[in-house]
Amino acid sequence: MNRYLLPVSVLGTMVGGAVLFKDYVTGGVCPSKSTIPGKTVIVTGANTGIGKYTALELAKRGGNIILACRDMEKCEAAAKDIRGETLNHRVNARHLDLASLKSIREFAAKIIKEEERVDILVNNAAVMRCPHWTTEDGFEMQFGVNHLGHFLLTNLLLDKLKASAPSRIINVSSLAHIAGHIDFDDLNWQKRKYNTKEAYCQSKMAVVLFTKELSRQLQGTGVTVNAVHPGVARTELGRHTGMHNSAFSSFMLGPFFWLLFKSPQLAAQPSTYLAVAEELEGVSGKYFDGLKEKAPAPEAEDEEIARRLWAESTRLVGLDVSRGSSVKG
Ligand SMILES: NC(=O)c1ccc[n+]([C@@H]2O[C@H](COP(=O)([O-])OP(=O)(O)OC[C@H]3O[C@@H](n4cnc5c(N)ncnc54)[C@H](OP(=O)(O)O)[C@@H]3O)[C@@H](O)[C@H]2O)c1
């Protein structure tokens, strides 16, 4: 009996240590118990991963949830799952393809016409490290979807968000923004050799800069906007990377992934927290790493770059600046 005591206690310590380490690395759950009955929430890219669990967490809190996705079959299936799990029947699927300015305009027009209010907008959808694809309007895909698509969507919904104030916008960025740089000479990768990683990092840098400039413009309106890194999670985000598709990495690195990666449910906690926490009332223009506010990379704090990116984005998506948040055509 005694000869098993040592190995068993060593194993127990290792397992306990691994669980504690995992909790430390992967972060905590949203501490707020706030509910949001009567509030309307839009979550982009909500058919899977972090977006789906963000929608689920907010549905549990009683919101009227709109899942905004490009694939309606997956979107309806996610909405059904969330209704089933939360017993909140005000969870609905709507079509939104962020790689199409036309689709974004159609989605926004429908929301403006059919919804009385928009209290929470979670700009969550993203594509990571895809091949050198372009959107319907010719923008490099990662910059086009992750930044420009959400830039246009948010601007189109601003009047509704202002009319529903206090309201909140959550821009899901990534720690990867720290390796990002905005190349104003070639925002859409037409001159440089395409680099999938750098393109993702640039798009996530753009998301933080957009947050900063939007927050400045929204001062005094009751609408807040913050950016967040949700943590590293086991989702479909790596679908375009070799690592995600390799059986070797799934099998051999599985235990490390378990230890170091969050579940999508846990990775949805920071967006949920930013959407509902009472203590964040009025907090705007900040970057959160998980549940904690942190300084983003120096370039993301540069007001000059943020303003220049705003001006370029406005031009690229065809926003009519003379008409505030409304657009041409
Ligand atoms: N997972 C991580 O480790 C991690 C780390 C840092 C930051 N993030 C950020 O967290 C957010 C959620 O990512 P995730 O990990 O949950 O990834 P995911 O599982 O791949 O989900 C991404 C979502 O975005 C949607 N999407 C992609 N292109 C779209 C388009 N053109 N129009 C509308 N929706 C589109 C996807 O729809 P389809 O299913 O139809 O493709 C999917 O619903 C992203 O902003 C990501 O950058 C994630």
TrEMBL record:
Entry annotated with the keyword ATP-binding: no
InterPro entries, per the entry: NAD(P)-bd_dom_sf (IPR036291), Sc_DH/Rdtase_CS (IPR020904), SDR_fam (IPR002347)
Keywords: Lipid metabolism, NADP, Oxidoreductase, Signal
Enzyme Commission number(s) of this protein: 1.1.1.300
N-terminal signal peptide: 1-20
Coiled-coil intervals, chain numbering: none
Pfam family, one: adh_short
Catalytic reactions on record: all-trans-retinol + NADP(+) = all-trans-retinal + NADPH + H(+)
GO molecular function: all-trans-retinol dehydrogenase (NADP+) activity
Pathway participation: Cofactor metabolism; retinol metabolism
NCBIfam families tied to this protein: PRK06197.1 (NF004846)
Family (UniProt): Belongs to the short-chain dehydrogenases/reductases (SDR) family.
PANTHER family: PHOSPHATIDYLINOSITOL-GLYCAN BIOSYNTHESIS CLASS F PROTEIN-RELATED, RETINOL DEHYDROGENASE 13
Protein name per its UniProtKB record: NADP-retinol dehydrogenase
